[in-house]
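A.,

Following up on our hallway conversation. Structure tokens first:
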């Protein structure tokens, strides 16, 4: 019998390896990545298109296209689609990120044959009904008016625009005029140009088999046109650094954003910066959280983030504080930056962050859907699957000297934008 009075021995997590998916190619050239595992008869199918902002000819075309894919096809109304999905107990979503449009289907394995024709219909003949487009425009105009009253939203919009410039795909911000300029023809043009086999990748996970892959090929592999690979447009750029203070009337809180342009995950310093950012403000025990929330009590939440896209990335710090605490909080942020640049990270703190990150990596490999997400993130960002193991090894092997070098190279306040939205006293 185990001794319940004695805690089990703690074992360090080492040498995590991402199980490799099975690879297929449909008749029209679409690559398929299959993670076949699990005991439950469920499936997740993700159809990912390189059709985000860098490929737009009309602002917001990618977001609107993604939102309206499920709102009716040449053969089905939006109500028909929703009713069919509900009848079979599935879930169908379509969403746009900065770089991609992703259509995701969850269903029981036994219902895949019934639902795959519907998915094919959505991916090949969306109707983009005028009434649905008008409703989308009205909803988002109203939501934008509400969002622009929030300091945190305004601050985020401003810092991305400062970093990339208002003409860059990653830098422009939505406006009511942009929403009003959307047309059904523009969405159809974006769909025809980019939602093709040449820009598509499929990730399927769960309880799969050869029959599922064959059915996928018989539907999407035959119906989706081949097309041509889309070429991204990345014109526009922002200033290297600067300071921007935008007053916001009748608010009791001030939003602070501090950040700079960095790089995407393909950069050789990304893994090290991932660890450094975690120490600085990337988890609940970070330096920013410990100092500014727990010790000073200036805010409920403060964080730092590495936002990485397919073609670029940036670092930023974000928090909202009472107006009377804005300048003291900003001073403490700079103080923590300077400490990282001046003093090596202690062995105990680095050990704790390593354990935290290794636990996260272990969770990322827990189950077919999580593994498929790791595979999708790598493949969709043009990374080899070995990049997961490289990240694990970077976390295990990086030392305080390297972290201090990275801090001095990339955390120079002279290279950062400082955005303040509100009325700091």
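Then the amino acids I'd put at each of the 425 positions:
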């Amino acid at each position: 019998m185990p001794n319940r009075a004695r805690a089990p021995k703690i074992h360090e997590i080492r040498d995590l390896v991402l199980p490799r998916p099975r690879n297929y190619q449909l008749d029209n050239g679409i690559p398929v990545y299959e993670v076949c595992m699990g005991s439950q008869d469920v499936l997740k199918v993700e159809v990912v298109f390189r059709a985000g902002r860098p490929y737009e000819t009309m602002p917001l075309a990618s977001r609107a296209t993604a939102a309206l894919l499920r709102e009716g096809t040449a053969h089905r109304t939006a109500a028909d689609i929703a009713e069919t999905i509900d009848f079979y107990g599935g879930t169908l979503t379509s969403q746009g990120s900065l770089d991609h449009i992703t259509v995701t289907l969850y269903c029981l394995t036994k219902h895949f044959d019934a639902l795959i024709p519907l998915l094919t219909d959505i991916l090949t003949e969306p109707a983009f009904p005028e009434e649905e487009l008008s409703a989308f425009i009205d909803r988002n105009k109203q939501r934008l008016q509400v969002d622009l009253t929030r300091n945190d939203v305004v601050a985020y919009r401003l810092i991305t625009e400062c970093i990339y410039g208002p003409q860059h795909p990653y830098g422009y911000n939505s406006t009511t005029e942009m929403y009003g300029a959307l047309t059904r023809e523009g969405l159809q043009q974006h769909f025809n140009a980019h939602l093709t086999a040449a820009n598509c990748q499929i990730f399927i996970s769960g309880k799969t088999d050869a029959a599922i892959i064959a059915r996928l090929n018989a539907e999407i592999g035959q119906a989706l046109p081949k097309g041509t690979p889309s070429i991204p447009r990345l014109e526009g750029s922002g200033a290297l650094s600067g300071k921007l203070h935008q007053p916001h009337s009748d608010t009791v809180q001030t939003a602070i954003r501090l950040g700079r342009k960095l790089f995407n995950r393909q950069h050789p310093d990304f893994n090290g910066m991932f660890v450094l950012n975690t120490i600085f403000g990337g988890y609940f025990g970070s330096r920013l959280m410990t100092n500014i929330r727990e010790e000073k009590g200036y805010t409920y939440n403060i964080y730092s983030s590495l936002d990485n896209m397919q073609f670029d990335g940036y670092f930023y710090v974000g928090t909202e504080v009472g107006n009377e605490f804005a300048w003291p909080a900003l001073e403490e942020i700079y103080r923590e930056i300077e400490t990282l640049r001046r003093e090596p990270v202690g062995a105990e703190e680095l050990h704790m962050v390593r354990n935290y990150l290794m636990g996260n990596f272990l969770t990322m490999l827990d189950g077919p859907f999580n593994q498929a997400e790791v595979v999708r993130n790598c493949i969709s960002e043009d990374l080899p699957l070995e990049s997961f193991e490289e990240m694990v090894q970077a976390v295990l092997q990086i030392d305080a000297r390297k972290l201090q070098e990275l801090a001095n190279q990339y955390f120079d306040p002279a290279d950062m934008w400082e955005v303040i939205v509100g009325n700091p006293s």
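DSSP finds 15 helices and eleven strands in the chain. Curious whether your intuition agrees with the design.

B.
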